[in-house]
TrEMBL record:
<dbReference type="InterPro" id="IPR000917">
    <property type="entry name" value="Sulfatase_N"/>
</dbReference>
<feature type="compositionally biased region" description="Acidic residues">
    <location>
        <begin position="423"/>
        <end position="448"/>
    </location>
</feature>
<dbReference type="InterPro" id="IPR017850">
    <property type="entry name" value="Alkaline_phosphatase_core_sf"/>
</dbReference>
<dbReference type="InterPro" id="IPR052701">
    <property type="entry name" value="GAG_Ulvan_Degrading_Sulfatases"/>
</dbReference>
<feature type="domain" description="Sulfatase N-terminal">
    <location>
        <begin position="8"/>
        <end position="302"/>
    </location>
</feature>
<protein>
    <recommendedName>
        <fullName>Sulfatase N-terminal domain-containing protein</fullName>
    </recommendedName>
</protein>
<dbReference type="Pfam" id="PF00884">
    <property type="entry name" value="Sulfatase"/>
</dbReference>
<feature type="region of interest" description="Disordered">
    <location>
        <begin position="423"/>
        <end position="459"/>
    </location>
</feature>
Amino acid sequence: MTEITGPKNVVFLVLDSLRKDRLSVYNDEIEFTDSLQALADDAVVFDDAVTQAPWTLPSHASMFTGLYPWEHGTTHARSYFDGGHETFLSEFVDAGYDTAAITSNIWITPHKGMTDDFEYVENFLGTADNTISQRLSKLSTKLYDSLGTLPKRVIGRQLDRAFRLFGVDDSCKSEETVAAVESYLDAHPADEPFFCYVNLMEPHEPYHPPAEYLDKHGVGDTADIPQRQKDMFTMDAPDFDALRRIYDASVDYTDDLVGRITDSLAANGVADDTVVVVLSDHGQALGEDDGLFGHQFTTIDPVIDTALFVAHPDLDGGRRTEPFELRRLHDLVPYYAGLEPKPEAIFADTVRGGCQFPENFTGYIPGEGWDDYYRKRRYLIRDGTTVRKSVDENGNARYRAVDRETGEAVALTDELRAAIDDIDDGTAVDAGADDQPTDAADDDADEEIQQRLEALGYR
C-alpha cells in the first residue's frame, strides 16, 4: 500500500550514538543486528540521513521542532530547551494521543525542558524527579549558562569530581528502559492511540554490555578501552581495536533489546497499527582521524551520518537515497501517524548542521590539545561535497571540503564557502549564550580564572 490511514500509534525509537555502519541494514558485513534488520526488511530506509548536531540535546531539539541548532538555541552553550518553540508532539496531544517518554538519557528529562509535551515520563530519576527539583535544575542551568566560559570550566571540573565522589550512576539502564516500555504497552488500552518515545543508551559510552556479548565479540581486558572523553587525555595508549569490539558488543545487545520491544508490540496486538521509527540521534567516533573518540568534539561522517528507517503498516518498503535532514522528522512523523498530509520537498538540496563551543566538557582538555577541540563547528553538504568549518575562540576559521564518495579533499569553491559562512552571517542568528557580551567585571574574573587554569595545565 502507499496510502496512509490513521490514526496510527508511533514508537519513536532513538538508539543513542549508534553508527549506521554497525547495522546490517547499511553494511552487509554486519551479522549481529537481526532484530533491526527484520524491522528494516519491510521499512522505508533512508540511506543518507544526517543529524543537525553531533550530540543529543540539540539533535533532539532539531528533530522535535524542525529548526536548526542556531535557531532553537539549544546547544553546548545553552544546555536546556526553553519551550519557546512548538514541537511535533503538540499535534499528537491535540489529536487525543497518549504521549509517553521512556529514557534514561539525562538530557531528555523534565529538568532540561525536553519532555514538557509528554503526558507520561519515565527517566529513572526516582525521588529526584519532582516539581521542586525540576524547577531548581532549570534555574541552576540557566544561571550556569549565563556565566562566562572560564567559570563554566572550573565549575564543570568540580561537578565531575563530585559525581565521582558520590558514585553517580552512569549506567545505560537498558534493561530498565525496555521493561518500562513493556509495562507501558501491557497497560495501555489497545484501542487508544499512543506516541511512545524511547531512548536506548547502550551504544553510548561508557560501555557495559552483559558478559555474554563481551565474550561473543572477543572483549577481554577492558583496562585500555576509553570509556569517557577525558580518557583520551589520560590514557597512554588507548586500545581502539578493543574499543570497536566492545562497541559492537553494545550494538549487539541493543539489537536484542529492540527485539523485545517489537515482540511486546505483537504480544499486545498493536503491531499492525503501529509505526516504528528507528534512528540514531548521532553516531560515534571510534579512533578515526588520529584517535578521535566520542562525538561532541567532531563532525566527521561516522558522527553526523545517522541510521533512519520507518516500518509502517501502510507503506511498502524501499530505500531513499536522497539527502535527508533529521530535523524534517518534525514534519514527517505526524504524516506517518495519519494526522497530517504528506509534507512537500522533504529531501534537502543542502544539508546543514553544527554545534557551539563545548562549554560543558572543556574541563578535560589539556592545553596542548585545546586548539583542536575547543571550536565552534558547522557543516554543509551539497552536490556530493561536505564542507566543514571550525572556528576557534579568537574567531579564526578553518575550512575543509571533501568528496563524499571518495573521502578525498577537494577545492573549496567560493559558492560553498559563502554558503557555510551564511549559516552564521546570514539570517540564521546564533542563539547560543557564548556570543553574549560580558561586562568588565566578568572579564577580570575570567582573567584570574584563566591564570589559575594555566597553572593547572589548562588553557
